[in-house]
Amino acid sequence: MSTYVESLVGKWDEILSEGQEINNRKVKRATAVMLENQINYLTGKAPQMNESSSVDGTIAPDSGNDLYGGTGSYNTNAEFHKIAIPMVRRTFPELIAHDIVGVQPMTGPVGLAFALRFRADQSYAGQANTEIGYNTIDPYYTGDNTTSRAMGTVAAEELGSNTAASTSADGFLQQGQTGEGVGDRGLGIGSGKQIKELSMTVEKAQVEAGTRKLRSRWSLEVAQDLKAMHGLDLEEEMMDVLAYEITAEIDRELINVMRSVAANNASSTTWDYAAADGRWEAEKYRNFYNLLVRKANRIAVDTRRGAGNFVIAAPSICASLETTSSFTIQPVAADVNSAVTGIAKIGSLDGRMTVYRDTFATIDDIIIGYKGPSEYDTGIIYLPYIQLLVSKAVFEDSFNPTVGLMSRYAIHQHIFGAENYYIQVAAQNLP
After folding, report:
1. What average pLDDT does the segment 378-391 reach?
2. What value, to the nearest 5°, has the Cα angle with vertex 57 and ends 51 and 58?
3. What is the mean pLDDT of residues 363-388?
4. Of 40, 60, 94, which residue is a domain's last?
5. Of 92, 40, 11, 96, which is closest to residue 356 (Cα–Cα)?
6. Dist CA 327 CA 357 (whole Å)
7. What is the spatial distance between Cα 265 and Cα 425, in angstroms, rounded to a whole number?
8. Measured distance CA(297)–CA(300) in Å, rounded
9. C-beta of residue 130 within 8 angstroms of C-beta of residue 430
10. What CATH code is carried by the domain that includes residue 383?
11. Quick check: is 200 in a domain?
12. Which residue among 15, 73, 96, 148 is least packed, with the fewest CB closer than 10 Å?
């Protein structure tokens, strides 16, 4: 699969290099798969489930290099070169999904969501078939020998005092085994103890792409007037608006799923501004920040993978965080993966957590989450199939044009125990 994806990156390199550069290699690879899905669907090569694919003209590359429809290109189909490819290239890399969840593009309407887990075998006494990382915090866990010495007395006295010890208590010394001979681990001819063994399992679940649709229509007279007076192509303008709106809706769905999953985490809580410790406003917000750090570290304990590395907050909470000394602002730029509308990246907290502002939030809350370096190390998986499919029509009674967009994808959150990856903190009585 990796070789196949790399070949797609080479095939679509000219398109991927257009406009703002996609710096993230994983995002570039996923975008290449989506571009290939788009052309396969339009040419009828894609796997289909009781679907029909129709296209006017012929879509086949010539010897030219202008993939946007210039001489010697996909110039026999205006739908394809004018709308579909530039739109997928522009919108897919800007999905917030690339930063907060795992993205695993599908090549058909039905696919599998994958996650990797590493397990211990029976050689780990009492821990067979458990996920590695859960108990390895104990420095004595992988050893077999621990001994307790005889009881002793521990005395304590006040520092700088010449008086006798004021308190005493019984205690014991625990000894941990620090090393063994080669033979003791079954590597030689010693006692033949079994070597600890790890195994990798691929957790998978079958998913089916759902559908999200959005449409718009306008009068033919308005389109003609804008074209004549301002040189604007109303159809193109509406297509851009629809594309960004449907992208924002996908982002919103991901956040809603994340919020519902986080609600199942026992560590989710509520922070009350009025009851928070601190005389001044800055002290109260610092108290709030300390709470977020504790919750982020709680995710590390629950997942044994890493502390929370991003937060998604309502605008009012973002305003509070921006007043703390820990906040570092993200320069505003309409760059790939940093769109300034919808869910926007606005900065970071001490470099440990990236802050995203959710302008569509209806409640004052914040979601703390963790996404690992791999697309398989996450609590929620986004599986896109067709990013944007364009459909046009004309109403016979009014001759008014209409255009519709459809996106097909799946969201899966049941592989790793997603509630361990996300914690919700609701805020009350904010000024």
Report:
1. 90
2. 85
3. 91
4. 94
5. 96
6. 13
7. 11
8. 5
9. no
10. 3.90.1690.10
11. no
12. 148
Least confident of 150-159, 200-209, 312-321: 150-159
State how far the Cα of 248 lies from the Cα of 212, in Å rounded to an integer.
12
Per-residue pLDDT at 168: 53
> 113, 385 in Cβ contact below 8 A?
no
Q: Could you give the angle at which helices 234-262 and 220-230 cross, rounded to 10 degrees?
A: 110
The label of the residue with tokens 């202008």 reads 66
Residues 346-363, mean pLDDT to the nearest whole number: 91
Longest dimension (CA), the chain: 102
Structure tokens at 67: 């993939």
**Is residue 372 domain-shared with residue 232, that is, in the same domain?**
yes
Mean pLDDT of 401-409: 90
Residue 288 lies in a domain: yes
The range of the structural domain enclosing residue 87 comes to: 1-94
Tokens of 109: 């309407």
Whether 243 and 379 share a structural domain: yes
Is 227 found in the same domain as 360? yes
- Out of 53, 79, 94, pick the residue that ends a domain: 94
- The total number of structural domains in the chain stands at 2
Residue 249 dihedral angles phi and psi, to the nearest 5°: -65, -35
Residue 305 lies in a domain: yes
In this structure, are 254 and 390 located in the same domain?
A: yes
The predicted-structure confidence for 225-257, as pLDDT tens digits, reads as follows 999 999 888 888 888 888 888 888 999 999 999
Read off the pLDDT of residues 104-153 as tens digits, 9 standing for 90 and up: 999 899 999 987 766 666 555 555 555 555 444 333 334 444 444 455 55
Same domain as 421, residue 291: yes
Distance of alpha carbon 355 from alpha carbon 311, whole angstroms? 5
How many Å apart are CA 407 and CA 349, to the nearest integer? 34
Phi-psi region of 403 (alpha: psi -120 to 50; beta: other; left: phi over 0): beta
Cα–Cα distances (Å) from 192 to 103, 144, 177, 185, 186, in that order, read 45, 14, 18, 6, 4
Q: Which residue from 61, 93, 108 is spatially nearest to 80, judged by alpha carbons?
A: 61
